[in-house]
DUF3267 domain-containing protein (Halorussus limi), 209 residues
Amino acid sequence: MESPDPAADSSPPESGDGPPTPEPPDPPEGYREPVAFEYPAVWLSVGSLVLFVAAYLGFGRLMGALRADTALEFTVGPTGIGVVALLSVGTIVVHELVHGLVYRLLGYRVQYGLALNMGAAYAAAFGQFQTRWDNLRVGLTPLVAFTVVLTPLLAGPLVVALAAFLVLVVNTGGAIGDLYLSWRILRMPEGTLLYDIDARHSYVYYPEA
């Protein structure tokens, strides 16, 4: 999804000395040659850290404002650390399942896995042309759904509030890739199509007109 200049070089990247780069399909009628899309891994890592800190501070202040407790003091022992780890992993799994559910509701076939090049889990519709608006729905639904459902729980019993707080922080910090993709999509012209070959190779097809 290499944005928004359709006149940019649209030839597939050179494979170099590594394995050959998979070729994207020919463009549909009325579309330009595909342009490779890449996530800026370093900047997304920095952005994820910033989002994580912002979510920690923001949801923490909100939880304090919603609760009657004058102070939130608690101790996390070995069991608590295990619970934190399980909740964190569970958040990532459910986040991707929500992506996949939206894909399925929109009529796509879904595959799940780990993208080691990005250090992230994924739910993807490989080998299928996807509209920009479908991608936007898929990308933003987990962030919106988790935030809407879990934020009211910050006012609940302490154990529930802390669990909701952790999930909100992990989910928000982990949504940096979704937010980046959504930002790029919103800058693309109407009618743009996206195509994922695999977890490492994605392309954008801009309309000719």
About this structure: Helices lie at 41-66, 78-105, 132-150, 158-173, 176-186. Residues 1-16 have pLDDT under 50 and may be disordered. The chain has one domain: 35-69+78-205. The longest helix spans residues 78-105.
